[in-house]
Amino acid sequence: MVGSDGEVGRAGDPPFFPGRSVRGRSPQLRTRAKMRDYIQLREAMEHKDRGLREKVMSLKEAIGLIRDGDVVAAGGCHYSRTPMAAVWEIIRQRKKGLVYCRSITSTEGDLLLVAEACAHFVTSWFSPGVTWGVSRVMRHYMQEKLAVFEEWSHMSLGLRFRAGAMGIPFIPARVMLGSDLFPRVPMKEMECPYTGEKLALVPALNPDVAILHAQKCDPYGNVQGEGLPFMDNDIALAADKVIVTAERIISNDQVRRNPDRTTIPFFCVDAVVEVPYGCLPHECYGQYEPDFAHMDYYVKLMMDKGPDGVKEYLDKYVYAPESWNDYLEMLGFKQILRATVSGRGVYND
Amino acid sequence: MTREAYNTAELVTVMSARVLEDGKIVFGGAGMPLVSCILAQKTHAPRLTILFEGGVIGPHVEPGKLPPSTNEQRAARRANMLLSITDILLLQQRGYVDYGFLGGAQIDQYGNLNSSFIGDPDNPKVRLPGTGGANDIASLASKILVAMHHEKKRFVEKVDFITTPGYINGADSREKSGLKVGGVYKVITHLGIFGFDEKTRRMRLEALHPGATVEEVVARTGFDLIIPKEVPVTEPPTKEELRILRELDPDQRYTKAKEE
């Protein structure tokens, strides 16, 4: 019923799933782990401390939970609610060999590539944004085969996280069929046992770590997200570990007054970090729009100079500042204020 | 009759808007498709509902503030509902969505689109940004509209890579691959409007825009089109359509004339 291995994947390339990877080897040579075993997933959950406890820590401590080679899923989408502070700290801690999974990857993908933190992207689209053109850095790394761009359709990537969240190995769907995307990713098709229809079996993705940014979170990890939910909630349920950066840490009492607004329950979450403006230069719904001037500056530097431009950017904006707040200071008060005023505009409509 | 001048991108935007029917639901992508959808709302289709893959149902996009991405808060303004990306795209699988509106780097005679690789996918000349939600929309929405600038390098016999399936290899190959519904309904270019033959699923010229000729269409198409004996000519964009269009996109970020 299920298609044989020979029907999917490139010839001679066994189906693979990002999972725990072997360390100390280049990403291209790394053993591609199989789909996560259900019993192991359950065991990891059993050992996770799910008690109602405080999890507030520094950005440094939180990102310390990520190991080299981990499969990391990021919340938000494109240049919206990107967990930028987490990405920034990942680069500063010189993490290596990560697999980065995100619905749509924007400028943070360039940074991870050039910083050599990550050479394997599981995503549906990779560039700064339609109006800024195709990322020269993405092109360089992918065309020169220095990195892998595992391309899934937007919905199928969403279903991968959902299957992971549901604790099932796959979800049948009617997408990717007939396309050339299908044979390039580890996916199979089957005949429906009820109707005989051909269906794509979208495999579960259970990341090692999720990095999510939210407007509000309490010290226990109850997330109250606002605006566009993207794939965050499924990612949180699918991942082994969840790191939440928040614009504000609110009290648990405030959460209990409006429990209907909680989008991710505390027991999913392992680390809570208060990082105001934690998405800049990307946006955070209702808080601030992107710092478009900084985005324009970055994209010009990246498009003009390619990876060298991004190296310059990393030195100046990621490695040099002593803290995230120092980085914000470099963006400038006026620019941040402008982004904030327009970002809050959603509440004036 | 005096005619207001318009550029090729404005022409495509107006012609695309006219295809959208009132009371229907359309998945609009960023850029020109979005401008078309709003133009349709502001002219003949006030009850047209726009969905964005970022998770937005029925937003109110302000003139002059068109979001450069459909995954951001400007695209979510005054919407009826915000959903997760997965759920909004799943609405199509249930059958709620009448139109999907796409662009692409390349299209072929069967309406397949490529937004992944130029050249050999294993050794590409250009790695493009990828599918985003285009593959999902083209697999699931009832009718797909494709808006493109008409150039020979874009209208190719066979796309380098099928990111977004049209009728695959023609005839019933789409259905056989598991895609039981949908397919490309119209391709709208700056030269004309194109459909697909019901049997062979090959692209067919259905109308020419004012001033365009069959010869020009043929010269700018890299495959054999089906060309009927009689080809109707579309009505040029009206002053009203152009006025609204320019109000929506005053800086011509999405409706600038295409360079060649």
Structure description:
The complex is a heterodimer of chains A (349) and B (260). In chain A, helix 8 links the parallel strand 10 (241-249) and strand 11. Chain A starts with 37 loop residues before the first helix and ends in a 5-residue tail after the last helix. In chain A, helix 6 packs across helix 7 and helix 9 packs across helix 10 (307-319). In chain A, strands 1, 2, 3, 4, 8, 9, 10 and 11 form an 8-stranded mixed β-sheet that branches. In chain A, strands 5-7-6 form a 3-stranded antiparallel β-sheet. Chain A has one domain (38-169, 204-347): Glutaconate Coenzyme A-transferase, CATH 3.40.1080. Chain A has 12 helices and 11 strands. Chain A has 349 residues and is of the alpha/beta class. In chain B, helix 1 packs across helix 2 (32-42). Chain B is α/β, with parallel strands linked by helices and 260 residues long. Chain B is built from 7 helices and 13 strands. The two termini of chain B are 30 Å apart. The chains are: A alpha/beta (349), B alpha/beta (260). At the A-B interface, helix 5, helix 6, strand 7 and helix 7 of A face helix 3, strand 9, helix 4 and helix 5 of B.
* Total tally of structural domains of chain A: 1
Largest interface: A-B, 63 and 55 residues
One letter per element, helices H and strands E, the order of chain B comes to HEHEEEHEEEEEHEHEEEHH
Class by alpha and beta content of chain B = alpha/beta
CATH level-4 homologous superfamily of chain B: Glutaconate Coenzyme A-transferase
Please name the CATH architecture of chain A.
3-Layer(aba) Sandwich
The share of residues in extended strands of chain B comes to 15-25%
Q: So, the CATH homologous superfamily of chain A?
A: Glutaconate Coenzyme A-transferase
Per CATH, the class of chain B reads: Alpha Beta
Please, what is the average pLDDT of chain A? 91
Shape of chain B: globular
Radius of gyration of chain B: 18 Å
Low-confidence stretches of chain A: 1-33
Oligomeric state: heterodimer
Structural class, judged by helices and strands of chain A?
alpha/beta
